[in-house]
Amino acid sequence: MPISGNKTLGIIPLRMASSRLPGKPLLKLGEKFLFQIVADIVSKSCIDKLIIATESPEIISVAEKFPEYNCILTPKFKSGSDRVAWVSRKFNKFDVVVNIQGDEPFLKYQDIDKCVAGLIEDKNAVISTLFIYSENEREFYETSTVKIVSDINNYAIYFSRAPIPYPRDKIKIRFKKHIGLYVYRKNFLEIFSKRKQSDLEKIEKLEQLRILEFNDKIKIIETENDSFGIDTQKDYERAKEKFIKDI
Q1: Is 179 helix (H, G, I), strand (E, B) or coil?
Q2: Could you give the C-alpha distances from 142 to 137, 159, 174, 186, 205, in angstroms and in order?
C-alpha cells in the first residue's frame, strides 16, 4: 500500500545478454527462475504496481506464462535505469519509481519498504539505495562488490568497485557494501535519463555515478540484511548453496 500517500511503481529490468553470465534471468534457484524469486519478494512490499521490463522476447515468453506478472517488451538500452525510465513514462499516476535488480534473490521486502520510506522522508535526496556494513575482506577487494563512501548525513560521496576507503596502514576495515536497489523520485528519473553517460560511469560501469557527477543527492539507507547480486558463474554457485541453506 502507498507510503504517506505516495504511489510507488516497481520495475525489474532484465536482459539476456549479460557479458559475464549470459541468460542470467532464466537461471533457476530451486524450482523458480531467478526473476520469479525477485518478483515474489517485491510482491510482499509496499510497491503498488510491478512491471517486468526486458528487451528479450525469450524472457517475455517465459514470464507471460505466469498471469501474476505484468511484462513489457522494451527497446535496447545501455543501462537498467534507462530502461526503467522508459517504462515509467507509460505510467503517470506514480510519485516514486523503484528499480529492482533482477539478480538480487536475497533482497528482503522489508528493506524495499525502508528504502522507499527513506526517500519520501528526505526532501533533499532524489534517490535512495541500500548498504550494509561489512568486514568481509574478500568482498572488500572484489570488483563485483560495490563500496560506498558517504558523508556524516549518509549522502553518498562516491561508489566504486575499488576497495574504498583504502586502508593505507593495513588496518582491519569496516566498509559500506552497496546493495543493488534504487528508489527514484519519478520527476528526477526523467531528468536523469536524459543526461549522457558520465565519464566516471563509463570507467566504473556504475550508472549511479552519473547522478553524483551532477551533484544530486543519493541517500544511503542502512540494512542489517546482507545480499549479493549474481554477476558470474561463481556467484551463481554461491547463490545455489545459500538458497539450499535458507530453505
Answers
A1: strand
A2: 9, 14, 15, 33, 15
Contacts of 160 (CB under 8 A, 6+ apart): 146, 147, 149, 204, 206
Ramachandran area for residue 185 (φ above 0: left; ψ -120 to 50: alpha; else beta) = beta
Q: Could you tell me the CA-to-CA distances from 221 to 5, 90, 146, 165 in Å, in that order?
A: 21, 28, 15, 19
Task: Indicate the pTM of the whole model.
Answer: 0.91
64: CB partners within 8 A, 6+ apart:
71
Q: What is the grid cell recorded at 233?
A: 558463474
198 in any annotated domain: yes
Residue 141 covered by a domain = no
Confidence of residue 5 (pLDDT cuts 50, 70, 90): low
Intra-chain end-to-end CA distance of the chain, in Å: 28
Contact assessment for residue 52 and residue 42, using Cβ atoms and an 8 Å cutoff: no
> 189, 198, 195, 206: which is closest to 87 by C-alpha?
189
Supply the CATH number for residue 209's domain.
3.90.550.10
Which domain range does residue 43 map to? 8-131+179-246
- C-alpha grid cell, residue 194: 536524459
| Residue 146 covered by a domain | no
Q: Which amino acid is at 176?
A: K
Domain count, the chain: 1
User: pLDDT tens digits, residue range 126-148?
Assistant: 999 999 999 999 999 998 899 99
